[in-house]
Automatic annotation (TrEMBL):
<dbReference type="InterPro" id="IPR008521">
    <property type="entry name" value="Mg_trans_NIPA"/>
</dbReference>
<keyword id="KW-0812">Transmembrane</keyword>
<dbReference type="GO" id="GO:0016020">
    <property type="term" value="C:membrane"/>
</dbReference>
<dbReference type="InterPro" id="IPR037185">
    <property type="entry name" value="EmrE-like"/>
</dbReference>
<keyword id="KW-1133">Transmembrane helix</keyword>
<keyword id="KW-0472">Membrane</keyword>
<dbReference type="Pfam" id="PF05653">
    <property type="entry name" value="Mg_trans_NIPA"/>
</dbReference>
<protein>
    <submittedName>
        <fullName>Uncharacterized protein</fullName>
    </submittedName>
</protein>
<dbReference type="GO" id="GO:0015095">
    <property type="term" value="F:magnesium ion transmembrane transporter activity"/>
</dbReference>
<feature type="transmembrane region" description="Helical">
    <location>
        <begin position="379"/>
        <end position="399"/>
    </location>
</feature>
<feature type="transmembrane region" description="Helical">
    <location>
        <begin position="177"/>
        <end position="197"/>
    </location>
</feature>
<feature type="transmembrane region" description="Helical">
    <location>
        <begin position="97"/>
        <end position="124"/>
    </location>
</feature>
<feature type="transmembrane region" description="Helical">
    <location>
        <begin position="74"/>
        <end position="91"/>
    </location>
</feature>
<feature type="transmembrane region" description="Helical">
    <location>
        <begin position="34"/>
        <end position="53"/>
    </location>
</feature>
<feature type="transmembrane region" description="Helical">
    <location>
        <begin position="442"/>
        <end position="461"/>
    </location>
</feature>
<feature type="transmembrane region" description="Helical">
    <location>
        <begin position="136"/>
        <end position="157"/>
    </location>
</feature>
<feature type="region of interest" description="Disordered">
    <location>
        <begin position="1"/>
        <end position="20"/>
    </location>
</feature>
């Protein structure tokens, strides 16, 4: 039984795409040529489309109001916007990824699909205005590097078809049974933890706390403008004396028109009159700037329509993100340490669930390929199909929960890293692919797994050592700031500290 299980092991694919049905088909153009170019284009398009779909789902889940904007004149309800994101996900993972498998090798296809981590950072910054800190950028790149190492060290010559008896042999094998039990146990622990946290510290309260922080930041900006305008008012007399003398003072920020120049040349009385008029114009300009600052929302994670407040002609809610103060004491917010822990548990459990879906999908496709031999009536096939359907439906729930609570730029690398880790381990341990690997291939896979784990760990850090010593020109190309600009846990304590520095209007 063990020998049959080894002969029937299936090649693993270290990607987060659930489509494996076309992997047994021969490539149309494995060498150079138009087919290879098409395969590269389709693989990169698959990564970009999947990353874009994740950002659409995040946008639909956090945007306030009964409607959100898809295009300039197209508005959808948040639920239908989320469904649209799922459709885009299906186009990327089921369409582009499948087409790429017809033209290029599986190794190249997997490496190119991993570029979704880079596309995700771009979309999260451009569309959701998420802050790309060095831990997030470096962590995503390290996970990408680990994926490439695993792809290079993948097994060659592994069978792609096996019978239900061989699948039973994988489950009965000691290492297969231990691995699958550990995988299911980790997922169950994650699900129970998520349910407990969601009941005690709802995601909606976390979003409200984030909006309150943005409101206070807006108030702080207005207060800063007031302080600057007062400082400019105190310097008005000295500035006007310089203007009367014929010298413009740029630091005062005052513009002198031709009437003021003529008054200065006429005499002291006319100059005083011009000074009074100039001072009034300065105050008017300061009030106008203050009004504009008060009405301008800061760039934030929460995206709403950029039109007037209230409800526009399309019926979309466009109220300001931070117009009404929120009492933080009434919100049920998780402690900072717990929120940091769950920032890993949420996306990692989603990735492990996708790993189960990928494992069962491989087993299902390989058994279906032998249906002509009369093996499709075995109970193992129906058990695998039921497990695949259940894990796939669970993914839909997980996507809503994870990307509503955490930013895409931090959650997606962890999710993808966990899914890749599970896929690689499924091949090495469950499907016993080590029997088809050389020692160097095994070392490459183990090194790739360690690199992926280190990349996930970097994503969770607040800052990276020695990054602050790099030239700002280097870090400014990819990162928004040199250190984490905000806390991922919007706790009452953090909001209270922010409130101490802000005078409420």
């Amino acid at each position: 039984g063990a020998k049959q299980a080894q002969q029937g092991s299936l090649a693993t694919r270290p990607t987060s795409s659930p489509n494996d049905g076309l992997q047994a088909l021969p490539s149309a153009a494995m060498s150079d040529g138009a087919g290879a170019i098409l395969g590269v284009i389709f693989a990169v398009a698959a990564g970009a489309t999947v990353a874009y779909s994740m950002n659409i789902q995040r946008y639909a889940l956090i945007a306030p109001g009964p409607k959100v904007r898809l295009l300039r004149y197209i508005y959808l309800r948040p639920f239908w916007m989320w469904i649209f994101g799922l459709v885009v996900y299906g186009i990327g993972s089921g369409g582009f990824y499948s087409l790429a498998g017809l033209f290029i090798s599986l190794s190249l296809q997997s490496a190119l699909f991993a570029t979704l981590l880079v596309f995700n950072l771009f979309f999260a910054r451009m569309f959701l205005h998420e802050v790309l800190t060095p831990p997030r950028v470096v962590g995503a790149c390290v996970i990408l590097l680990g994926t490439v190492l695993c792809v290079v060290g993948r097994a060659e010559g592994v069978p792609t078809e096996y019978s239900p008896e061989q699948i039973k042999g994988f489950f009965k094998a000691t290492r297969g049974a231990i691995y699958f039990s550990a995988l299911i146990s980790a997922i169950l622990v994650g699900v129970i933890s998520i349910i407990i946290v969601e009941r005690k510290y709802p995601t909606n309260d976390k979003i409200l706390a984030q909006r309150e922080r943005e409101r206070r930041a807006s108030v702080a900006s207005v207060a800063s403008n007031k302080s600057l305008s007062r400082t400019a008012g105190l310097q008005t007399d000295a500035s006007l004396q310089s203007i009367v003398g014929g010298t413009r003072t740029a630091a005062a920020g005052l513009s002198v028109d031709s009437a003021a120049n003529a008054a200065a040349a006429s005499g002291p009385d006319a100059a005083a009159s011009a000074a009074s008029a100039e001072n009034g114009a300065t105050l008017a300009n300061a009030e106008g700037s203050l009004t504009q600052a008060a009405s301008t929302r800061p760039r934030s994670v929460i995206i709403v329509d950029e039109t007037t407040a209230g409800t526009d002609r399309h019926g979309a809610s466009v109220s300001s993100v931070a117009s009404v103060p929120i009492n933080v004491k009434d919100l049920r917010l998780a402690p900072r340490w717990l929120d940091h822990v769950m920032a890993f548990v949420y996306p990692a459990s989603l990735g492990l669930d996708e790993g189960v879906a990928h494992l069962t999908l491989r087993a299902m496709n390989s058994m279906l390929a032998q249906c002509e031999e009369g093996t499709c009536a075995d109970w193992m096939l129906y058990f695998i199909i039921a497990l695949w359907i259940f894990s796939s439906l669970a993914t839909l729930w997980w996507l809503r929960v994870v990307f509503k609570r955490y930013e895409v730029s931090s959650a997606l690398p962890i999710e993808y890293g966990a899914a890749t880790f599970a896929d690689i381990c499924s091949g090495l341990i469950f499907f016993q692919e080590t029997e088809y690997m050389s020692t160097s291939d095994i070392i490459l896979n183990i090194a790739g797994l360690l690199v992926i784990c280190s990349g996930v760990g970097m994503t969770l850090l607040k800052s990276l050592p020695l990054v602050a010593y790099l030239p700002r020109q280097w870090t400014g190309l990819c990162c928004s700031k040199l250190s984490e600009p905000s806390e991922t846990a919007f706790t009452e304590r953090s909001l209270s500290r922010a409130g101490e520095r802000i005078s409420e209007p």
